[in-house]
């Protein structure tokens, strides 16, 4: 079943969750009401044919269906009694059905939504270090597929209702609303991905998120290269222009298609034996303040360090006497097992 979180944009109120709700909860009510009107019309017509004026025929039909117990109008014949019996059976049934559906539409749906909302909110409240993804368009869906395949927990925010392939958990609401971000557990998240269509919205959410969570890692999409400096000033750690990346990749496929395909397989394919991955150097870990040779990464794990990212730039093919520092990031090549051993060793 699909779980969705519907946000009522009112500060200080908890969001509302809708999971598996019918698209038209009032459909059965309108169908029942239509059937009741039809029964009244048929009853009025029938009593009119039995000799009553139209007004009295309608009155007799209504008091018969509602079973108020008033006496019959006009001359009571066998045909009159038979028609009244049939009208009671159909009319009372239609009235009770319509009333029951009305009560169900008014109360039962709200009760189910409240129960589901609380269940979803409890699930989100238990999350920590997850990814909050704002925007579920083409770019957002591609991001979600990659993160989900990598085993990351993602809470998706989008202003539109999700379809049958809705992610779980997901929040329906404006990402620019502080309450929506709080409902998605932004204060406990490890990463925020801004994939909204508007650069202005991405900038606004980035400013809000950075003020709420100073240590949050933020990745933002931009459609215009002129917006990149503004996003970085707002606290975005990485800015990605999908159009520029798509153009560069297409040009690279023209120039060196096999190299591009191989790099794509190395980064994402599970069937290849070797992969590229990053390993952070922590201040209290065993690597900080030691040279690559002293760390014995190749000997102990089998992974090969291809580069070290330091202060926004890369040191490629670092020498053995290169001293690692806290906040450095190792870019290593190896099998899944070798890279896992490197991560474990870096966290010792």
3D structure, described in words:
With 348 residues, the protein is an alpha/beta fold. It is 48% helix and 16% strand. It has twelve helices and twelve strands. It has helices at 27-49, 54-65, 78-125, 138-149, 178-183, 199-212, 228-233, 242-255, 257-268, 292-295, 297-301, 336-346; strands at residues 3-6, 16-19, 131-134, 154-158, 170-172, 191-194, 217-221, 238-240, 274-280, 304-310, 313-316, 329-335. The protein has an eight-stranded mixed beta sheet with strand order 2-1-5-4-3-6-7-8, with helices on both faces. It is rod-shaped, with a radius of gyration of 33 Å.
CATH topology of the largest domain: Rossmann fold
The termini sit apart by: 41 Å
Whole-number total of structural domains:
3
Report the total helices: 12
The CATH architecture of the largest domain would be 3-Layer(aba) Sandwich
Radius of gyration, in angstroms, nearest whole number: 33 Å
Average per-residue pLDDT, rounded, comes to 81
Tell me, what is the CATH class of the largest domain?
Answer: Alpha Beta
CATH superfamily of the largest domain: NAD(P)-binding Rossmann-like Domain
Uncertain regions spanning at least 5 consecutive residues: 1-23
């Amino acid at each position: 079943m699909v779980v969705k979180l519907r946000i009522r944009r009112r500060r200080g109120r908890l969001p509302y969750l809708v999971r598996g709700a019918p698209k038209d909860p009032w459909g059965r009510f309108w169908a029942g009401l239509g059937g009741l009107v039809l029964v009244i019309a048929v009853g009025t017509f029938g009593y009119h044919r039995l000799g009553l004026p139209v007004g009295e025929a309608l009155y007799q039909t209504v008091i018969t269906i509602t079973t108020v117990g008033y006496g019959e109008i006009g001359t009571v014949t066998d045909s009159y009694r038979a028609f009244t019996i049939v009208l009671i059976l159909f009319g009372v049934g239609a009235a009770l059905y319509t009333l029951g559906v009305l009560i169900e539409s008014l109360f039962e749906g709200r009760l189910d939504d409240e129960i589901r909302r609380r269940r979803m909110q409890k699930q989100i409240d238990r999350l920590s270090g997850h990814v909050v993804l704002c925007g579920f368009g083409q770019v957002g869906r591609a991001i979600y597929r990659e993160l989900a395949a990598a085993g990351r927990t993602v809470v998706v925010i989008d202003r539109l209702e999700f379809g049958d392939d809705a992610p779980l958990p997901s929040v329906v609401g404006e990402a620019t609303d502080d309450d929506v971000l709080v409902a998605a557990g932004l204060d406990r998240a490890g990463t925020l991905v801004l994939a909204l269509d508007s650069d202005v919205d991405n900038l606004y959410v980035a400013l809000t998120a950075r003020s709420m969570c100073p240590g949050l890692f933020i990745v933002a999409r931009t459609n215009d290269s002129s917006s990149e400096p503004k996003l970085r000033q707002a606290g975005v750690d990485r800015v990605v222009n999908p159009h520029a990346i798509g153009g560069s990749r297409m040009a690279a496929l023209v120039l060196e298609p096999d190299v591009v395909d191989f790099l794509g397989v190395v980064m994402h394919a599970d069937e290849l034996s070797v992969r590229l991955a990053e390993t952070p150097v922590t201040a209290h870990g065993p690597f900080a303040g030691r040279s690559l040779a002293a760390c014995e990464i190749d000997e102990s794990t089998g992974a090969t360090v291809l580069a070290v990212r330091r202060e926004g730039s890369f040191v490629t093919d670092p020498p053995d006497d290169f001293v690692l520092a806290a906040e450095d990031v190792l870019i290593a090549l190896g099998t899944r097992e070798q890279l896992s051993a490197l991560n474990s060793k870096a966290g010792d």
